[in-house]
Structure formats: C-alpha cells, structure tokens
Request: fold
Amino acid sequence: MRMPALPSTPWLVSTPAPGRQMRLFCFSYAGGNAFNFLRWQESLGNSIEVAAVQLPGRGARIAEPPIASMSTLLRALAPVLAQRDEMPFAFFGHSVGALVAFELTRYLQLHGLNLPRHLFLSGCQAPQFRSPSRQLHLLSDDAFMAVLGQYNGTPPEVLQNTELMQLLLPTIRADFALAEDYRYRPGPLLPVPISVFAGRDDDNKAPGQVEGWAKESAEACQVSWFNGGHFFVNSDRDAVLSRLQVELSATRRSFMQADVLSESARRAWRR
Reply:
C-alpha cells in the first residue's frame, strides 16, 4: 500500500517516494541542520524515508529566531508529528538531537500520541548520568568559538569567517542552551526499544553515561560502538549507516509481523 506524504512544513526536509514503509525522523547536533541527513537517504534504501527535522534559525529558516528552551521546542514540534500520516516511524538524534528525540518521545507518550517504533540515541549522555553543565552558551563570542574549535564539529574555515559566524552564533548558542539548561525529570518508562550509538574516543563515557539509557525504557536497550570522537556519525558514517539499516530492517519486520498477526486475530474474531 502506498503511504501518503507528510503535509508540507518548514520543520521537515524529506524526499517522499513510492514504496516507503517506514519514516526516520532525524535530529541534528548543535549547529547542524536538516541537510546533514539528506545524504543518508541513498544508503538506507527505498523502504525508509529520511525526514530530517529543521529547527528555526538555520537553512531556509535562517531568519527565524532559534529556540533555546526544551519545553518550547517540544510544544512546537509535537503537533508537526501529530499531523503525520499513518506510516510507522523511528527517531534518530545525535548529541543534543538525541536529547530532543528522547524528550519528544516522552512528550508524545504523556499526551497519548503515536510513539516511534524505535529510538536511536547517538553521542549523548544518558539523562540520569549527565555531566554538570558548563554553561558554555554564556561565554563571550571569542571564548565560545574557541570551544567550538575544540569540538571539531565546525570546519576551521567557517570559524575564521567572522561574518558567517556572527550569523550562526545565536543558533549554535541556542542549541547548546537546550542541552546545558536541561533538567531531567523522572517519568514512566518508554515502551520503545532504544539503540545507543557511541564513539570509542568520545568523552561521554563516564559511568552510566552510555549504558544508563537502559533506565529509560521498558524494552531492550542495545549499545553499538563506533570509531572516532564525538562526531563519529561523520567520521565513521558508513559503519553508522550500516548498523542503522540493519536495526531499522529488524524493526520494520517486527511491526509488519505484528500487523499481520493483528489482522489475523481480527478476522478470526469476525468469524
């Protein structure tokens, strides 16, 4: 059965096509944008539709003020997903994007909305084991850009472009604030399996910061390790996409089998 496309919205960038069976909503790291994920479409195949989330303050939304509050972001983003079609979906988020994906899933659960079939959380400390906030987003421009250089997530030529950085800094600060002002609140376990992606050379490896994600779900939690530091999703991209494709295929088979069993049960009840 052909699935209809999502309603047009500036929040999402995707390439719908016939034959899609599952949608992967992707949430970027601080300072990133939806186009970081568009190249994933070819690698993930025709059955998966990559729908990259585009937050205000970047890309075609560069003129919009960025959002620095998690609660504000969730209230704005949840209705976008609630208007979607009936295609099953999963979430993938890296760094602060993983935190957004996790809290958005909790928000959907709290409000009785459809949940992702799988949650992929990459390069992000488990919420109950987060390091103390350094409030980097409050630094002066020069100090903040020096920190960005240490993260190796922003190309040096971009950091050296004064005009471009003045345009980008408010958005990057807002993204950092989402993570640094975040406060974990206990809540019901998610009925969603979690896959944690982590870099072998990343700093986010203190006790509990990787395996601690298992405390957030009543379903299975699996950890996969990749070569590289915090931005292993770029440096070890092929391995990340290969693992993601394997797990998405398993998730897709699982819900398709469940749908077949449900339909068989409905037919038996009618008889």
